[in-house]
Structure formats: C-alpha cells, structure tokens
C-alpha cells in the first residue's frame, strides 16, 4: 500500500451550476507528479481534468498548538474543476498522479451525480447540520473527545446516501483546534459521503477565530489554525476563500451562506454580499431561499444566549432581519448551539403564524432553525418559555429539506441515534404568494410619494 497515494476526495459545487470540484489529499508535490481527475459518464468518453496543488508550512499557523505540538505536515491538497457537466448525469471518476518517471498512481473509482440546473423540476434532497466533529470508531482515546454524536450522524447519512443530493456542514467542522492530524481523521470519516455528493461547508469559531488575525471575534477557538486548514482542505465557491461567504444554486434552491467569523453588520462587505445574494434570485425558478450561517444570528433558547439576554448572537437579527423579511427568506438555519430548535415564522420577535406543521400562502416571516446538534456535546436550553419557540430537542440530529416541486417543500428533523423523523413541517404555496407584499417586504408608500 502506498502511503502517499491520493485519498479522501471531497466534492463541492463550483461557481457555475454545471461545475463540480474535487479536492483530495496526497503525498505528491508538483515537483514529483502532475495531479488530475479522470472522469467518464456511463457510456461516454473519458476526460482528464488537471488539478491545482496547495500546501502550507508551520509558519502559516497563527499560534499554539497548531504551530507547536499540534503541527503535522499536511502533505498536499489538490483541487480539480470538472466543467460542462450534464444535469443529473451519473459520472464515474478516479484521482491520479502521473509521476515524472512515467508511472501513474491511482485512487479507487468513485461516482457522483451532477447537479440539476437552476430551476429544474425534480425531487431535490438537502441535508444540513453543524458542529459534527469526529470520533474513534473503536472507542479509543483521542484529543478533544467531546463529539459523542458524530459517528451516529455519519452512519445515518451513509445509510441514507441514496436519498441525499447535497450536504451543508455549517461550521465547527472537525474540532481539530490546532492538532492538524485530526483533519485527516475527519476527512477519512466523511469520505463515503463527501466522495459521492457535494459536501459544502461554512466557517465556524473552531475553524477561524484567533486574536489579531482579522476574525470578528478575538477568541482562541481555532487553536492557532486561523482558517488556514479550512480554506485549504475544502473548496467553496467564494470570491475570496479567506472571506468564507458564498452563494450556491441547487435546482429549485438558492443558498446564501454567511461567514459569522467576519463582520456581517450593515455597511460591511459581507452585508452587501448577503443582500445581493438574496435579491438576485429568480423566485419563479428557485422559490426556496435558504440562509445558512454558523453562529445563531436569529433565535435560540439555549442557556448561554438566555443568560446574555439576547437569545441570539448580539447584533445578529437586528442587522439582518430586514433583509430576511424584504427578500422573503423561507428558512434561516444555524449551528454553534449543540441542540435542535425551530421557531414559528417570525419577524421582529413576533410570530406571524401559530401554525406548527403546514404553511400555505405567504409565511409573512422567516422560520429560524438551530441545527448544531450533529455531534458535539449538547447545549442546555434555558428554562424560559419563549413565545416563538415551536419545537426543542436536547439530542443529536440533523435536518433534511426535500423540494418536491416549485410549490411544495418538506422539512424534517431526524435524530442521529435512529434516523427517524421527530419534527417536520411543509410549505405549500404559489409563486404569487412570494410576490405579495407583507410587513416591511415592500417599499412603503404615502400619498405624498
């Protein structure tokens, strides 16, 4: 067995809907071999796509332990861009490194299905969660062993992989916290998933935060990684990978992914991106508008936020709720808090509907969901009964969205222990319901204007 061979492919959507990227790890630098992906469709020709190569050094880390006892040479990270794919077509691929002596080192074969085109009418299934981490399958001891639900979540996703089209892991990816070998452990754990469907990520505090490095928060939660590992190990279709906000389209969905570890407030570069992402979607083609972020910029009843008195990340919804309302965001989903909670459709702390499971017509507000219970030790809820909290669960789990067509969306919360549905709702509406004015969603007018 070749310890330098290509391993752990991670798929991600590219900047165009018909582009898929493949990122993987190997021991071969560009001075020894040329990396590439060999791709073929069923019955089609074989095409080779070249790959770029990245790595980093100990000096790229911002502090200890990443720069000291946690350092390990990461090898080389390669990314290839597979372009002009046919929507929903099945492709078979393998990773290759052509050595300069003429030998080629191959991975095993993998397969994926290309993304649907924007607006395509087909059943589209999306899994979303945060804060999963990793675990030891044999129960052995490890550093940062506080993600007891991680293996269960991973197992459930693998079992249901034929019914999943794309995954969003919204921050706190593996909790390496400066011990770099744990990134390899995590990418090995998710390989059956990430090699088969796009595995999209968001940046969290345990990936980015470090004092004096430009992060919005001055904590030391990244263990000195300061975003370098995340930006290198995973591809996202951002304009600047150091600024981890981006948008991606998947069939009838538009996803706007924020980076809560950079300033999101009004007047910032990220705020302008968020408004453009929400405003630029054609809701007739892509009716399901989803906002994703790591820290809770909306609503949470967890004990920590309740003690602060904010029930959110301070300045979160105050900065963004007018955008969610103006552009009629269906669901805003967050991690960071390690439990599950769903609100009513809400705007300015007021429920716009008391319905719990079936919404028709205009929501008149955004449903907020905390889905940070994928693996890490659970977060306690406050004893305060908030009027907007519809469902709470102190357990590990994940969310699944299914777009049945342009008028019907199914939301399900599943527990990691058994994969069964414990909370759900459905949205049914016509395109005209999105056009209708609701509170603060249309410009105000007066007789004078």
TrEMBL record:
Instruction: State the species of origin.
Output: Rhizophora mucronata (Asiatic mangrove)
Q: Indicate yes or no for the key word Secreted.
A: yes
Task: Write down any Gene Ontology CC term.
Answer: extracellular region
Q: Name the cofactor(s).
A: Fe cation; Zn(2+)
What is the annotated quaternary arrangement, including any partners? Homodimer.
Sorted alphabetically, the keyword list is:
Glycoprotein, Hydrolase, Secreted, Signal, Zinc
Q: Which residues form the Calcineurin-like phosphoesterase domain?
A: 125-340
GO molecular function terms noted in the UniProt entry = acid phosphatase activity; metal ion binding
Q: What is the lineage of its organism?
A: Eukaryota, Viridiplantae, Streptophyta, Embryophyta, Tracheophyta
Q: Which InterPro entries match?
A: Calcineurin-like_PHP, Metallo-depent_PP-like, MPP_PAP, PAPs_C, PAPs_N, Purple_acid_Pase-like_N
Q: Which family does it belong to?
A: Belongs to the metallophosphoesterase superfamily. Purple acid phosphatase family.
What top-level branch of life does the organism fall under? Eukaryota
> What residues does the Purple acid phosphatase C-terminal domain cover?
365-424
Q: Where is this gene product found?
A: Secreted
Q: Please state the Enzyme Commission number of this protein.
A: 3.1.3.2
Gene3D superfamilies tied to this protein? 3.60.21.10, Purple acid phosphatase-like, N-terminal (2.60.40.380)
Q: Where is the Purple acid phosphatase N-terminal domain?
A: 9-113
Would you tell me the protein name for this molecule? Purple acid phosphatase
Record field: catalytic activity: a phosphate monoester + H2O = an alcohol + phosphate
């Amino acid at each position: 067995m070749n310890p330098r061979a290509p391993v752990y492919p991670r798929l991600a959507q590219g900047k165009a809907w018909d582009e898929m990227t493949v990122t993987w790890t190997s021991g071969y630098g560009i001075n020894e071999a040329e990396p590439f992906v060999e791709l073929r469709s069923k019955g089609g020709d074989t095409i080779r796509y070249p790959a770029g190569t990245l790595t980093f050094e100990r000096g790229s880390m911002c502090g200890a332990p990443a720069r000291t006892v946690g350092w390990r040479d990461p090898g080389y990270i390669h990314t290839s861009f597979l372009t002009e794919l046919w929507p929903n077509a099945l492709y078979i691929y393998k990773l290759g490194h052509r050595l300069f002596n003429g030998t080629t080192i191959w991975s095993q074969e993998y397969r994926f299905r290309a993304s649907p085109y924007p607006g395509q009418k087909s059943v589209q299934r999306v899994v979303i969660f945060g804060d999963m981490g990793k675990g030891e399958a044999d129960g052995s001891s490890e550093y940062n062993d506080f993600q007891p639900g991680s293996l269960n979540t991973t197992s459930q996703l693998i079992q249901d992989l034929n019914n999943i089209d794309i995954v969003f892991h919204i921050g706190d990816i593996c909790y390496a916290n400066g011990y770099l070998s744990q990134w390899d452990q995590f990418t090995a754990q998710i390989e059956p998933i990430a090699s088969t469907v796009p595995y999209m990520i968001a940046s969290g505090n345990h990936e980015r935060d470090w004092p004096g490095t430009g992060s919005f928060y001055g904590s030391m939660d990244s263990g000195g990684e300061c975003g370098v590992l995340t930006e290198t190990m995973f591809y996202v279709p951002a304009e600047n990978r150091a600024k981890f906000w981006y948008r991606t389209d998947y069939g009838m969905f538009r996803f706007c992914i924020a980076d809560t570890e950079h300033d999101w407030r009004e007047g910032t570069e990220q705020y302008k991106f968020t408004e453009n992402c929400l405003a630029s979607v054609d809701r007739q083609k892509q009716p399901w508008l989803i906002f994703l972020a790591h820290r809770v910029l909306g609503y949470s009843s967890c004990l920590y936020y309740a003690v602060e008195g904010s029930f959110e990340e301070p300045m979160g919804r105050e900065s963004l709720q007018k955008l969610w309302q103006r552009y009629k965001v269906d669901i805003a989903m967050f991690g960071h808090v390690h439990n599950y909670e769903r609100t009513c459709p809400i705007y300015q702390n007021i429920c716009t509907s008391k319905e719990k499971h079936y919404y028709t017509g205009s929501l008149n507000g955004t449903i907020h969901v905390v889905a940070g219970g994928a693996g890490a030790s659970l977060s306690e809820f406050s004893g305060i009964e908030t009027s907007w909290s519809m469902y709470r669960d102190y357990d590990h789990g994940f969310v699944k969205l299914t777009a049945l067509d342009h008028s019907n969306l199914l939301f399900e919360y599943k527990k990691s222990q058994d994969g069964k549905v414990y909370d759900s709702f459905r949205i049914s509406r016509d395109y005209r319901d999105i056009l209708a004015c609701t509170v603060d969603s249309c410009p105000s007018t007066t007789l004078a204007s």
